[in-house]
Amino acid sequence: MKLFEKESMNSKLFRLKEVIKILEEVSRSPKDEFVKDFKLNNVAMFNLLIGITIILDVGQHFLSKVVGKTAEEYKDVVRMLGESEIVPRQFADENIDMAKFRNFLVHDYDKIDEVKIHDYLQKAPDVFRAFAKYFVEFMDKQN
Predict the structure, then answer these.
(1) Cα separation of 134 and 38, whole Å?
(2) Tell me, what's the pLDDT at 34?
(3) CB-based contacts of 4: which residues, under 8 Å, 6+ apart?
(4) CB–CB of 139/9 below 8 Å?
(5) Mean pLDDT of each 10-residue bin along the chain, 143 residues long
(6) What is the pLDDT of residue 110?
(7) Would the pTM count as exceeding 0.90?
(8) Is the distance from CB of 13 to CB of 59 less than 8 angstroms?
(9) Are 51 and 19 in contact (CB under 8 A)?
(10) What secondary structure, in 3-state letters, does the chain show?
(11) Domains of the chain as residue ranges with CATH
(12) pLDDT tens, position by position, 86-125
């Protein structure tokens, strides 16, 4: 991986780290308070969207530039990351619906269930952190 590509990926992963901090803070809100607070649940939804998009973007970059494969749909990115052993296959299988969740946030925003957002929010920081860890380990192997 070229230096400028690695710097670009590190920049995206730094942003993911910032997103994780925000999501952890918001996730501590009690569910009933979260559901009623429009600003709070919108902060969560926006940062979930950004975090998932970063993961898919970085993953697609690795697949394209390093592995020589291109995913045609977002869900394929996660699946192919597991098949290519960039992330553990079981981890990829467990998180393949992340792309579906991203599409839900983007396209079905008028059908959002804040309780489901709060529930997803409880696991998202750990999942995002794990993706970042696997991505950094993969980049380190490329040198």
Answers:
(1) 34
(2) 96
(3) none
(4) yes
(5) 76 97 97 95 96 96 92 94 96 94 88 92 97 95 79
(6) 85
(7) yes
(8) no
(9) yes
(10) CCHHHHHHHHHHHHHHHHHHHHHHHHHCCCHHHHHHCHHHHHHHHHHHHHHHHHHHHHHHHHHHHHHCCCCCCHHHHHHHHHHCCCCCHHHHHHHCHHHHHHHHHHHCHHHCCHHHHHHHHHHHHHHHHHHHHHHHHHHHHCC
(11) 3-141 (1.20.120.580)
(12) 999 999 999 999 999 998 889 987 888 999 999 999 999 9
**C-alpha–C-alpha distance, residues 135 and 72, integer Å:** 20
Query: What is the CA angle 60-130-122, rounded to 5?
Result: 110
Q: How far is CA 107 from CA 20, 67, 115, in A?
A: 23, 30, 18
Report residue 85 as tokens. Answer: 């052993």
Q: Given the structure tokens 């670009």, which residue do they identify?
A: 8
CB 40 within 8 A of CB 22: no
